[in-house]
């Protein structure tokens, strides 16, 4: 009896093809795999001959996978995810369940997940976090496609035909936040001159570095002379920002729901004011991004429902 063809098959060929699909061209795939472009091309041709079907076709924007290549890619990602889950679970939690790997800014981890775990009415999923600080959008997409991360929660949706992005929240009202003992704390309301007079602490969620780009939205000042904002402290740590406000006369701009959370639930020594009428800020959306065909879809949906339950508390 002859052996099945799969026994002698070199599965590294699929790994190489998968990287070409993700990278969009052979040169970039070769760089990511630490191979030469000719070695990648030879591997793709070897896989094509083995299957007897074309795997890519050329377009003006680069190589595009055929339907056959995409089918193999989907199966490969699912298989690798399942294997990694089994290996990871056996090392950490035993065979009892998978761990959902979540990437997000620390402020979203703090606000959403801490509240979720405090809610006794839901059974919390097992979650492992990594911070999205200084991670570019294309790197986030790659992390999902390569199954290194299961979910990315961000203030913007990731654009890719293999990724599902669901809007789970919208932070639609912003305030100016300062320390409870700052120079502003005795004011009844805040004027634009206060906004310019005092130094600012700016939270950087790792994606938007411009001060006018705030948590995925834009700050606009409607006045002939907008003035200059004195930013003296910038951090990707929300706890660093809160600590700076509590110990100084600095101020910052955050959504009202976050300000309420840090004052009422985290008991931080802060005070907030409505924005001066000259300042307007668009809604700040929050998206949950995940691989559409992820083998962990049910865990993703479980966490999504739990986050919404926590939000309604």
TrEMBL record:
UniProt xrefs under Pfam families: HTH_1, LysR_substrate
InterPro entries per the UniProt record, alphabetical: LysR-type_TF (IPR050389), LysR_HTH_N (IPR000847), LysR_subst-bd (IPR005119), WH-like_DNA-bd_sf (IPR036388), WH_DNA-bd_sf (IPR036390)
Keywords: DNA-binding, Transcription, Transcription regulation
Domain HTH lysR-type: 9-66
GO molecular function: DNA binding; DNA-binding transcription factor activity
Coiled coil, from the record: none
PROSITE patterns in alphabetical order: HTH_LYSR (PS50931)
Protein family (similarity comment): Belongs to the LysR transcriptional regulatory family.
Full protein name: Transcriptional regulator
Naturally occurring in which organism (per UniProt): Rahnella aquatilis (strain ATCC 33071 / DSM 4594 / JCM 1683 / NBRC 105701 / NCIMB 13365 / CIP 78.65)
